[in-house]
Amino acid sequence: MVSNPLPGLARRLGRQPWMMRAAPVVLPLERFVRRVSGDRLGVLDLAGLPSLEVTVAGRKSGLPRTTSLLYVPRGADFLVIGSNWGSKAHPAWSANLRAARSATVRHRGEVFTVRVTEITGVDRKRAWDHAVEFWPGYEMEYELSGGREFRIFELTRS
């Protein structure tokens, strides 16, 4: 059986600082791939990485906001990390999740409601270590961000 080489390649590329400057290219490409695939696939899916789309009400507007994210599997739950490509600012989606108790997730063609929990305190260290073990690029993104503490959320099926 031939294994997919793309996840390993993506993990190597994800550790490269220059890759974080690719966001202006990747984000429109993500929207395009989602549109032509009928929302079944995104760029991360094509690279063999776990992705989901999370929809949450905007904290100010109340309007639904959808974002494609890499997730870290944690049992049946999903961890999402607000790395924002190593930017010094938190991603807008993380502020919206922080203000929400629940969200909607599209994952592998299934749509379901999740409970949103921001992970803090001693649990955060364990979650961060788990996330970095899964996606080592988070450490490089942390350095690029100037040491900003990334928000970590656990999404649990309701």
TrEMBL record:
GO cellular component, one term: plasma membrane
Reactions that this protein is recorded to catalyse: oxidized coenzyme F420-(gamma-L-Glu)(n) + a quinol + H(+) = reduced coenzyme F420-(gamma-L-Glu)(n) + a quinone
Pfam families assigned to the protein according to its UniProt record, in alphabetical order: F420H2_quin_red
Gene3D superfamilies in the record: Electron Transport, Fmn-binding Protein, Chain A (2.30.110.10)
One GO molecular-function entry: oxidoreductase activity
InterPro entries the UniProt entry points to: F420H2_quin_Rdtase, Split_barrel_FMN-bd
Transmembrane segments: none
Family membership: Belongs to the F420H(2)-dependent quinone reductase family.
NCBIfam families hit by this protein: hi_GC_TIGR00026
Identification of the protein by name: Deazaflavin-dependent oxidoreductase (Nitroreductase family)
